[in-house]
Amino acid sequence: MTALARHVTTVAESTELSGSSASFAADVIAGLTATPKRLSPKYFYDRAGSELFERITELPEYYPTRTETGILTERARDIAKLIPEGAALIEFGSGSSTKTRIVLHETKSLAAYVPVDISAEFLSQQAGTLRADFPKIKMLPVAADFSEPFELPGAVQQLPRAGFFPGSTIGNFEPHEACAFLRHAARVLGHGAVLIVGVDLVKDTGVLQRAYNDKQGVTAAFNLNLLKRINSELGAKIDLDSFEHHAFFNRERSRIEMHLASLKRQRLKLGGECIDFRAGETIHTENSYKYTVESFGALARGAGFVQTAVWTDARSYFSVHVLTLREEPAPTRPRPDLAAVG
Ligand code: SAH
Ligand code: AVI
Q: In the chain, what are the domains?
C-alpha cells in the first residue's frame, strides 16, 4: 500500500476528500506507466468497493472476518478493560464498523468513537447508523487516508485515546510500511496508548488461495471494480471483459498477491498517455501479507511497541494483538572516559 497521495485532508463530517480525484488520476497514471504495472489497494474503496468488501466478509471461503469476530467476541471484556474511562476509540479503516460494535457494547464509559476511512460516502452512512444505535457515544468520522498525516477532531484532542486496527488491513502494507504505519499510529494515539491490531496468520496454501478466489466471483468483482472506477472517475474506456482476476499465495514473500491480467495485447488511453499491455501482462493491485505471531511481534517491537497480549482462535488462523508503546529509554549520560578528544 504505497502512500502516493501527497495531500492531507481531515473532514469531520463531510463526504468529500478534497483533491482526491487529482491524486487518483496522478497515481493511476504513475502506476500504469511503471514496470511492473501496479495500483494501490486503497483505491478499491469507493462506495461500490466498500459494499463489495462487505459481501466478501460473508463468503464461506473468506475466513478472516468470521474468525476475528469470534476472537473479539470472546475477548470483549478484556478489551473493554484496556480502554481508559472517558477515552476516544480511534479506528483505522473502519469500513462498516461491525467488529467495533462488539467493543462499543462492552465499553460503557467511552466518550467518543473516531472511525477513520478513505471511503468517505460509506463512512458517513455508517456513522449515521452508529449515532442512532449508540446515542451516548460521540461519533466523529474522519474521511482521510490513514497512511498520511491527518488531524483528529478537536473534541478528542484532550481525551485519552485507544486505537483499533482490525481486519488484517495492516497486511495490505509492505512490512516496512506497516512498521512506519505503527509509528504514525503511536503519534496519533499519544503516550501510553493501547493499540489493538488484527493480523491474519500463515496457514495451508489451499485455505489462503480459496479465500481470494471465491466461487461466486465476489473477490474478482472487487478487484475489477478498480478498473470500473478508473472508467467512471477518469473517463477511461477500459473493456472490463478484457481483464481477469488473478490471486495466488507467494510463499517466498508470505503474501497473497492480487493482479488484474490483460487477456490480450491492448492499448489504453488515459490523461493523454498511451498505456500498452502485452497479452497476459498484469496490474498488481494488492498484497495481503500473512504473518506468524512471532514475525508480527518482531515488526511491532521494531516500531517501538510491546506485545502485551496475543489472542488466536483454535485453528490459529487469525490473531489479535494488544500493543502498548514501549517507554523511551532514558538518555544515557556520556561517559567521560569515552568522550571524544580533539
Ligand atoms: N475494519 C473493517 C474493514 C476492513 S476493510 C473490518 O475489519 O472488517 C479495509 C478498510 O480500510 C476499508 O473500509 C477501506 O476503505 C479502508 N482503507 C483502506 N486503505 C485505506 C487508507 N489508506 N486510508 C484510510 N482507509 C483505508
Ligand atoms: C482489507 N484487507 C485486509 C482484505 C485482505 O484480505 O487483504 C482485502 C481483500 N482483498 C481481497 N479480499 C479481501
A: 1-234+290-342 (3.40.50.150)
